[in-house]
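To whoever is covering the structure queue this week,

Two jobs came back overnight. Logging them here so there's a record in the thread.

Job A:
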Amino acid sequence: MSHLVKRWIPTLIAIVSGLVTLGGYLIQNPALVYFRVHLVEWAVIVSGFAFFLGLLNILRVHGRQIVRRRQGWFYSMTLLFAILLGLLPTVLSALPSLPASVPSQEEVDHVVFDFIISPLGGSLAALLVFTLTLGAFRLLRVRRSIGAVFFLLIVVVILLGSVPIVGLERLAGARDWIINVPGMAGMRGLLLGVALGTVITALRVFLASERPHSEF
């Protein structure tokens, strides 16, 4: 009985829910569409609860890190401060009487994006340039092949094409072509691989070959 409850009942629920949802998208049957809409709404609610539990887990883990003053506790405090800063306008907006001096959620989002996320993104991009260049030179030193030389050439064209210097307009055009043609082709290949992996995982769940929902 315990084996039935732990393994086969969750598997049956997952298979039936997945088939009903898939059938609601493929077959325009009013009953299937009705159940598909409600199942998707329930999935959104479950995702909200999962997000809330994840947030509580982050608060618990990093709060313990701060209280015990472990290594890296300052970064944990920064993370918790950013989370509370993002939640504060939402909590205050739910109050019946909100002071005019309290910033709105949109203003806080603009401040966080302009003064935190955007500078961090620029710093990460700058570090990525040096890391990519160093990796290209190390590759050329360890393995001198046509592929390594071609990789180093692509890196140089991409980097120089991104620099706003007069006289490098042709390199800028070559950079745009590399990003839009072979780069986009590679990105589409990755997206196709992700889509195929998603389909295969769904089929494994439908066929009860994989049961992540019953492994507890």
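Job B:
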Amino acid sequence: MMIESLIRANAPTKYVIDSFLNNDDGNIHSYTTQEKFVSLILSISQPNHCNKRGAIIDWSIVVFLPSQRYIQKLVQRYTSQLEENNIDLEDDNLASLVCYFSMTRSISVLPDSTNASIVTFRIPSSSTKDDNDILQIRTFPYHNDVGVAKVWEAGACLAEYIIYNPHIIRGRHIIEIGAGVGLTGLVAAGVGAQSVHMTDYTEACLDNLAYNVHENAKWLIGRGMSPEAVTVGKLEWSDYSNTQKDGELISASSDYQTSIEELDLLLAADVVYDVSCIADLVKTVSKFLSCNPGERERIAIFATPFRKKSTFALFEKELERNHIVCTYEPSLELLPNVFPCYWNQPRTDVRVATMRLKMHE
């Protein structure tokens, strides 16, 4: 996988540096290796400077898309490799970058929960060849709300599944529950959905979802999707499954309003983790599937990491109790890896399942 893609995704710094040196034949002694490293940092920063030989970059005006803290740790790891090999900083821009970070000292303080990081991905598409066709997702790596902290592995896996099986979502009106930072819903919107309504329940998640939709408006238009067809709303499973009438969903970001009768596909990733929420989660899915179908059969697609056996067993028991049939996708290992984020939870631990109501005999 390209080194640029690893940095864009905030991959672990050790993995990035090892991959960078291996990609350069391990020639850490080469002066051009330092130049290449600086050019790599600049390629995913704003403004996108040209690293001309002899031109000293003013790093104070460079906006690092991955957080400044992440880039600082990346530079620190690379320069540590140089020191271990008794190599001087020969590239002036690398030296000035090290100097800049030594003055800012952002790595020496406690992480700030309000510090954002932009992770970016190039999404495969047959309809666009634009090199700038990049999906941007804002995360808050040190936030105490896990919904905004990162792109979770199951969400990335479900997005990859959608990218390479677009017929599943093409033309559908989608609701996503537990949308988190919005990667899966935005990908669905970008590969052929008719509309996407992303829901979560915390204020931090809803604000960040609205931001990510707004920032990717141009990306959506380039994919033939109207940004107005991608909406955000609050949905608590307990309220929806027990008290909310007529499946009404109100957007948190506008006066947009839709009824569940207009939707025909439910998406969810990494929502099976809290045993206290599983009953309401499954009731929500059951209520969605039970609504009168339109022209298409209603289905739900879940991506679920297999973490704790007892939690997953309870989830499957609740599905059975609510007459929901679950069919697992057997061939995830054959999917191309679009999102380099399977560091903590390997893709092999994620299951993708399609859910339908059991037909009564």
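Note for Job B: The two ends are 50 Å apart (CA to CA).

Please reply-all if you pick these up so we don't duplicate work.
Q.
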